[in-house]
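Researcher: I'd like a structural prediction for the single chain below. Treat it as a standalone chain; there are no partners to consider.
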Amino acid sequence: MKRNCIYIMSNKNRTTFYVGVTNNLMRRRLEHRAELAGDGFCGRYNICDVVYVEYFDKIVDAIRREKQIKEYARARKLALIESRNPKMLSLQPPFFNYPTSYE
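Model: Treating it as a single chain, here is the predicted structure.
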């Protein structure tokens, strides 16, 4: 699945968020899960679940959106996630297919 996207991952308790950008979400998700045993951010905070995704035609637009979301306060990130995933469920590959980005 090669599509430009931003994604938000979280730990099981939904207390910590990681915002990233990729052109292959399935691969990137596996990379994050492989880091769980390490001492990087995802390993330290047990970041393992994709909870939000937005797709873009151009990688520059995805990068711009990633930077924007990284500036959001926690409450605004929560509202964004809950706008598409009200129960904050862990999204699995079949559910990665959200519509193209929106504002």
